[in-house]
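Listing 4. Sequential folding, example run.
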Amino acid sequence: MKNYKTIILSNQEISPGYFRMRLLAPGFGAKARSGQFLMFRVQRSLPPLLRRPFGIFRVGFMPSDCDGMPEKEYVEILYKVAGRGTTIMAELHEGDRVELLGPLGKGFEENPAKQEKILVGGGIGLVPLFMLASELVEKYDVRLLMGGRTREDILAVTEFERLGVETETYVSTDDGSLGEEGLVTQVLERKLQKYPDAEVFACGPMPMLKAVNEICSDHKVSLQVSLEEFMACGVGACLGCVVKGAGHTEENPSYLCTCKVGPVFQSERLDWDALGEPNETCEGCAS
């Protein structure tokens, strides 16, 4: 974990309301693992006070500005404009100075015994799956199921296809504007009937994750989920992102800090009935 006082290399709108930001981050890629996240300080003045958590989409290198200079190492995030903080972010430009903390949290783990890997992403939940796909595709058969309400919620299809991940026939939207009409969980149900020994990785809105968990449980398939909980500190100090673990009771409480124990969890570690209940967070955390 390192605090970077750095600059923006690019900040582009890739779909209505969705942005891709690239940040200069020397040494970040050597530490980052798929499923981890970073905390982004929107601006140095107030408000907003708190940093915002974002999944790590990609790390890499850009050519140097001139011969003899080192390449520029970067980290990339995708985000959706949802409130005050992300609205400010969308107005930032190349060269603006910002601050980020990371990489943070626990990422995905692969089971070498499972040759077939199925990735399920809903909307902005596709973000942490890109690094995972780039790691898995060299060794396993990887299939990506992409879901969204409309075609505007389907992100980074080209980037996934360049990795060699099968995506084209597995895109679904609620309104049928791209791919097949319906929920991405319906596609997952079919794929698990075809690949009953698969390992599943998922990230997206809580209703989708609950449905994915139920399907995987019915098929007795291993599932890892990345939770999109609100985080104020990102290091386990504020306890604002705790979720209830499996077997939690008032007599024997089990709380898991998403930012430190997660954000990636084996599905059986979580109390799915309690997930999605609102936490007592401040007004600005959701943006």
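-- end of first protein; second protein begins --
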Amino acid sequence: MGTYGATWEYGGYNGCGNIHPIIDSLNGAYVIVAGNASGVFAEVEKTLKERPDALVFAVNDVGMYLPNVDHWLSLHYNSLLAWRAVRWLENTSHTYTHSIADGIGFDYSWHGLSPLFALSGYFAAQVAHIMGAGRIVLCGCPGDETPRFFEHSKRADNFQYGGGKSQYDKSIQTQLRNEMKRVPVFAEKIRSTSGWTAHYFGSP
């Protein structure tokens, strides 16, 4: 993990984006990270019934469809600009947007975040941790071959979000495991509602 040029450091991470005002700002809040896997809408709905006070951190294109989104995050910053425009057509309530790009119209830039997770769902959990969440529940982030919410079957390229046998899958899961060992206070916050991540982190 490099710190050269970093302007902030917190919770095992550092970077140089404009996130100073939101570091440790959630005061132990309960956060739902809503990913892209099939089942995400039911998992979010069930979790919100149990914890109506939870904040919703939407990941990637699912943020266009969830009725209430507090924070919207993606590593795919060009796509997030388009997804945000679609949401604004139907929903005028303000949602804070986050990405790793610097200076192109997001509320918060996580430019230079180090180490940076390879998947947007894990990046969203990382942001929630740095913002001071007390519990982070992954919904629709199973870390396996579960299809995305808009698909009938798993991806044609066989990418399995860390659960497959490809070198990319293996590196994603290895990174997650290593980070959880390196920053145990982060790992202790996380639970998951489905898939491999529920086995690894435990259920809510």
